[in-house]
Design brief:
Structural class: alpha+beta
Number of helices: 4
Shape: elongated
Distance between the termini: 69 Å
Helix content: 25-40%
Order of helices and strands: EEHHEEEEHH
Largest sheet: 4 strands, antiparallel
């Protein structure tokens, strides 16, 4: 990779993180291509475009944001393993969620909300002590 200095001489930069670690996917275009293949398999390639992929060098992953083609809103993310170039479906946004967001549907899965008036007491014993620390220490040691 080259950059230009003020005297118009190329300055060679150090290798990218992907090149230093010998990842199978070295750039954003390769990460997008893996995501594009997965979207084509699931008939979503026309409905979704890509945001700017980023590399997560801590977990060795590429994260490719999915953006709705019509709305321009983020609808999900595809996660690709940087070394093997395999798509990680368990870490990526599910197809059902992507389709629901594209169609502006509300999610069918809703969390159970406890009634605000219901109080569930803890199983832990509550103890409040007011004394000098030395006295409390001797009491707890006796038990």
């Amino acid at each position: 990779m080259e950059t230009w200095t003020t005297d118009n001489e190329p300055d060679v930069l150090k290798d990218s993180v992907a090149e230093k670690r010998n990842y199978g996917i070295l750039n954003t275009e390769a990460a997008r291509e893996v995501a594009r293949l997965w979207l084509a398999q699931n008939d979503l390639s026309d409905a979704v475009t890509f945001g700017l992929p980023e590399i997560d060098d801590r977990y060795h992953l590429w994260r490719v944001p999915l953006v709705g083609a019509d709305s321009g809103e983020r609808v999900g993310e595809v996660v690709v393993h940087a070394y093997t170039s395999l798509l990680l479906e368990d870490k990526s946004t599910s197809l059902a969620t992507i389709e629901a967001r594209l169609l502006h549907r509300t999610s069918a899965q809703k969390k159970e909300v406890l009634d605000k008036k219901t109080y569930k007491p803890s199983n832990l014993r509550n103890t409040v002590a007011l004394a000098r620390q030395s006295l409390l220490t001797t009491i707890w040691r006796r038990k």
